[in-house]
Design goal:
The radius of gyration is 23 Å and the shape is elongated. Strand 7, helix 8 and strand 8 form a beta-alpha-beta unit. The chain has twelve helices and 14 strands. The strands form two sheets. Strands 10-9-8-7-11-6-12-14-13 form a nine-stranded mixed beta sheet, with helices on both faces. A five-stranded mixed beta sheet has the order 2-1-3-4-5, sandwiched between helices. About 40% of the residues are buried. The chain binds ligand AOF and zinc ion. The site of zinc ion has 5 residues, from loops. In the C-terminal section; belongs to the HTP reductase family. In the N-terminal section; belongs to the cytidine and deoxycytidylate deaminase family. Keywords: Hydrolase, Metal-binding, Multifunctional enzyme, NADP, Oxidoreductase, Riboflavin biosynthesis, Zinc. This is Riboflavin biosynthesis protein RibD. Pfam families: dCMP_cyt_deam_1, RibD_C.
Length: about 375
């Protein structure tokens, strides 16, 4: 009974850490989102979260807020305290110096450079409990974990399709498939991601903004992949200033358009070969955690085939448009047999207004 109460209390404190961590949603790359809470005699006496790379870690803010009340206290932190000199000094040293009696950790840090904090704390005589609300902690930082393990940003493929599996009519008309509520969810998703990628076709046909459309919300970097650089001179992506745009192309493509884009403040980078994996590698080097693929079916199929997509978010509208030539969200994967189908794992369904959102993860393949 007492144990159950303690577990409930620990869980609720860790949930509070996750709530705090999320205040920096979309702002921490390449770092994780982390929250910390200092508890003395069952009362919260200090809270903190990590606001972004280069700034102090969550534990440091929580200790500062708790001040002298940190001595003998328990600190809850959603990620193992770091044990390294990175952009900031090791949190384990700050915890030891503050005299905390106990540290409750949500999940072990997958980053080998920062790991070892738990052992260091224990050898300093501090009690450490590991794994409270671990699943929720891992979920919040799924992109960070993926980045560390695979040296690539976490890829999300998002699309909106009709009930009969089309992303546009056969004449190419696609505004709007889903209702406003679902589109708002997409805008929030953009604010949480570091980059949004489309191909040249999407720019030519849809002329999208790819912003979060929210006052004060941050915007992802808008990335266009185009081999030919046969792109319109006046697309919204280069005529609107609320978000930066990066055009990735191949060596030597359309020098005139390159010059024009550069004049408009668009960054143009020529890669040796313009493939989804090369693009993800480039975005990894920029320090990105999560990348949203909002492209058409051909690029989506290539991105899936190259392992650049980990998670699918499919918005499904209760509409039927028919049309043999109407495009579908994923192009040719070369599969012939039903047994070859990629079957999503850990799926979740929810309704958003009249539409449905199905989320799930592609089976791990690398
Ligand atoms: N606790 C915690 C982190 N813990 C660890 O520190 C690493 C970044 O170190 P640094 O370069 O010094 O900021 C990060 O990759 C993660 O492994 N990081 C964070 O950004 N925030 C935090 O609250
Ligand atoms: Zn730290």
């Amino acid at each position: 009974m007492i144990d159950d109460k303690m577990n409930d209390f620990d869980s609720s404190m860790m949930r509070r850490c996750l709530e705090l961590a999320q205040k920096a949603l979309g702002k921490t790359a390449p770092n994780p989102m982390v929250g910390a809470v200092v508890v003395q005699n069952g009362q919260i006496v200090g809270e903190g979260y990590h606001p972004g790379a280069g700034q102090p870690h969550a534990e440091v803010f929580a200790l500062r807020a708790a001040d002298h009340l940190a001595r003998g206290a328990t600190i809850y932190v959603s990620l193992e305290p770091c044990n390294h000199y990175g952009k900031t000094p090791p949190c384990v040293e700050a915890l030891i110096a503050a005299g905390v009696a106990k540290v409750v950790v949500g999940m072990v840090d997958p980053n080998p450079q920062a790991a070892g904090g738990i052992e260091k704390l224990r050898s300093a005589g501090i009690e450490v409990v590991v794994g409270v609300e671990e699943e929720a902690c891992r979920q919040l930082n799924e992109a960070f974990v993926h980045r560390i393990l695979y040296k690539r940003p976490f890829g999300i493929l998002k699309y909106a399709m009709t009930l009969d599996g089309k992303i546009a009519t056969s004449s190419g008309h696609s505004s709007w498939i889903t209702d406003l509520a679902a589109r708002n969810v997409v805008h929030q998703l953009r604010a949480a991601c570091d980059a949004v990628i489309v191909g040249g076709n999407t720019v030519r046909h849809d002329n999208p903004h790819l912003t979060s459309h929210q006052v004060e919300a941050r915007n992802p970097l808008r990335v266009v992949m185009s081999r030919s650089l046969e792109l319109p001179e006046n697309a919204y992506l280069w005529e609107t200033e609320e978000a930066a745009t990066l055009v990735l192309t191949q060596v030597g493509a359309n020098p005139d358009l390159q010059k024009l884009l550069l004049r408009k403040g668009v960054n143009v980078v020529e890669l040796d070969s313009l493939t989804p994996d090369k693009v993800m590698s480039y975005l990894y080097d920029l320090g990105f955690l999560s990348v949203l693929w909002e492209c058409g079916g051909i690029l989506a199929a290539n991105a899936i085939a190259e392992g650049a997509v980990q998670k699918i978010m499919a918005f499904i509208a209760p509409k039927i448009i028919g049309g043999d030539g109407a495009p579908s969200p994923v192009g040719n994967l070369g599969f012939q047999q039903m047994t070859e189908a990629l079957t999503l794992e850990r799926i979740n369904w929810q309704t958003i207004g009249p539409d449905c959102l199905m989320e799930g993860y592609l089976p791990l393949r690398r």
